[in-house]
């Protein structure tokens, strides 16, 4: 998956739990839980939705690594495997 694909997946997953969420209005290093007032159940739903959209499992111990847009995309990219070659 490309960085754009991953950002789109994060945006879609976030939109699932916070329909009003607009990532363009939030700094890449802003805490998503604070920016969109996500409680623990919302954050868990976000994690589950990330898995549904990307097939990448985020274990609980790694939750702190996906709390911002920048870190989330970076985390997913590091676990998505090599990009397809053309």
Describe this structure in words.
It is a single chain. 52% of the residues lie in helices and 0% in strands. It has 86 residues and is mainly α. It is globular and about 35 Å long. 23% of the residues are buried.
Write the layout of secondary structure elements.
Elements: H1 3-17, H2 32-35, H3 40-54, H4 69-79
* Oligomeric state of the chains in view: single chain
Total strands: the figure is 0
Radius of gyration: 12 Å
**Average predicted local confidence, pLDDT:** 92
- Strand residues, percent: under 5%
Biggest β-sheet description:
none
Class based on secondary structure composition and strand pairing: mainly alpha
CATH architecture verdict? Orthogonal Bundle
Low-confidence stretches at least 5 residues in length (pLDDT < 50)?
A: none
Domain count: 1
Summarize the amount of helix as a percent range.
40-55%
Q: Could you name the CATH homologous superfamily?
A: ACP-like
Distance between the amino and carboxyl termini: 13 Å
Order of helices and strands: HHHH
Shape: globular
Question: What fold name goes in the CATH topology slot?
Answer: Non-ribosomal Peptide Synthetase Peptidyl Carrier Protein, Chain A
